[in-house]
TrEMBL record:
Keyword Metal-binding: no
Limits of the Ion transport domain: 137-427
Name of the protein described by the UniProt record: Sodium channel protein type 4 subunit alpha B
Organism of origin: Dissostichus eleginoides
Cellular component, GO, one term: voltage-gated sodium channel complex
Keyword Transmembrane assigned: yes
Coiled coil: 417-444
Single GO MF annotation: voltage-gated sodium channel activity
């Protein structure tokens, strides 16, 4: 079905009207009439289906080229405020400007900063600077140059002056945007665009750091390069749609990881702290007495009364693990790791990998299971756990790897692939819909053109067409 705005659009330059000083009053009257119509429907309990509600025309969105049905606007209508073409926005305080390539730019029709009306020369000049391609390229080059200066380990003495130049350029760019769009009140203003939030924060921090020491916040300027992503909004939109569809999969993934983390917590709690400790000379013949009656975590007990500091001994790298980064793990089960001769298996010291690998709490167990699922150096965790707990628990790791790494990860990838496929299908359907609408419009124009021709010319043309078919 054709959109009303596209089907009823006249052809030629009569569709383009300059935005005049009295245009806001016309927009206000249309807005009031629209509200009265809605109030009348509400009083009569007339409900309108959501799909029948007026929506912005997809062909007339900001950033898109002007549809060909409108023709090429006269040169005097380029880079100047025009009244809205989209019927949806004709009752809103907005106007459009056609830039290079007939690209549509939409602005707020209310006075920018309560001072600059759409007909103001200063605002028109700011709009022309904003929509021109050269200033955008200049800003991108400035951002890249700023990033290059940030890579200098020993910046020269005049680098502070360069910083002021960069700040001035960014401030000028933001000022142009505010003068052309307004600051924050109304639609299509400066802060209504999330891409401008980072610019505002960077500029604010640049001036604030001149008076208050906030550290090196200039690194935020590098993120301004991300504005180039604005030109690939289709890909960004597809990515956001895929993230929305991942909700159920993420809940399932977190639930499975939580269950496995609880199992790991019950099976392996404290096992990774079991280490091979060198037997002290005075206990060489009484290894069962080492640590007997002493809690290795009790800091109030430091010696046995014979001058032997137990805690200092078991925390000495020379006695635990033979000076290695992580001590050799061991276990008490029959299939666990066994200490070499001259060492005894004790629970002491921290967990492996600087204490980051353990099952001693739900959080650490969850992190370990997440590491298994993503297969991030998982073989180290696998070997440490089997040596401390026993080879029997290999079954646990087989289940986690198959269900977590192979099933859940592939399920996430499948959802992302489906989201991209749906996005592509929606894009193709939208393009096909546009082609059908344009074909209907062309057929309508041909019908109008034929109806305007004299009867004699139409009959003569029909006779020529019949003769052509007979041949």
């Amino acid at each position: 079905m054709m959109q009303d705005g596209a089907a009823a659009a006249p052809v030629g330059s009569e569709i383009f009207r300059r935005f005049q000083p009295d245009s806001p009053e016309k927009i206000q009257r249309r807005h009031e009439a629209k509200e009265e119509e809605q109030q009348r429907r509400k009083e009569k309990n007339i409900e309108v289906a959501e799909e029948d509600l007026p929506k912005p025309a997809s062909d007339l969105e900001a950033g898109k080229p002007l549809p060909f049905i409108y023709g090429d606007p006269p040169p005097e209508f380029l880079n100047t405020p025009l009244e809205e073409l989209d019927p949806f926005y004709q009752s809103e305080q907005t106007f459009i400007v056609l830039g290079k390539g007939n690209t549509i730019f939409r602005f707020n029709a209310e006075p920018a900063c309560y001072l600059l009306s759409p007909c103001s020369r200063l605002r028109i000049a700011a709009i022309r600077i904003l929509i021109h391609s050269y200033p955008f390229l200049f800003i991108m080059v400035t951002i890249l140059a700023n990033c290059a200066f940030m890579t200098l380990s020993n910046p020269p003495a005049w680098s502070k002056i360069v910083e002021y130049v960069f700040t001035f350029i960014y401030t000028f760019e933001a000022t142009v945007k505010v003068f052309s769009r307004g600051f924050c009140m109304g639609k299509f203003t400066f802060l209504k665009d999330p891409w401008n939030w980072l610019d505002f924060m960077v500029i604010s921090m640049a001036y604030l750091t001149e008076f208050v020491d906030l550290g090196n916040v200039s690194v935020l300027r590098t993120f301004r390069v991300l504005r180039a992503l604005k030109t690939i909004t289709t890909i960004v939109g597809a990515l956001m749609q895929s993230v929305k569809k991942l909700g159920d999969v993420m809940i399932l993934t977190v639930f499975c990881l939580s269950v496995f983390a609880l199992i790991g917590l019950q099976l392996f709690m404290g096992n990774l702290r079991q280490k091979c400790v060198l037997i002290p000379p005075q206990f060489i013949n009484h290894t069962s007495d080492i640590g007997q009656g002493y809690d290795v975590n009790d800091t109030n007990v430091n010696n046995t009364g014979s001058g032997f500091d137990y805690h200092e001994y078991i925390n000495n790298p020379g006695t635990v693990g033979s000076g290695q980064l992580d001590a050799l793990l061991c276990g008490n089960s029959s299939d666990a790791g066994v200490c070499p001769e001259g060492y005894v298996c004790l629970k002491a010291g921290r967990n492996p990998n600087y204490g980051y690998t353990s099952y001693d709490s739900f959080g650490w167990a969850f992190l370990s299971l997440f590491r298994l699922m993503t297969q991030d150096f998982w073989e180290n965790l696998f070997q440490l756990t089997l040596r401390a707990a026993g080879k029997t628990y290999m079954v646990f790791f087989v289940v986690v790897i198959f269900l977590g790494s192979f099933y859940l990860i592939n399920l996430i990838l499948a959802v992302v692939a489906m989201a991209y496929a749906e996005q592509n299908e929606a894009t193709r359907a939208e393009n096909q819909k546009k082609e059908d609408e344009y074909q209907q419009i062309l057929d309508l124009l041909r019908t109008r053109r034929r109806s305007r021709q004299p009867v004699g010319q139409r009959s003569q043309r029909n006779r020529i067409q019949r003769r052509t078919h007979q041949r």
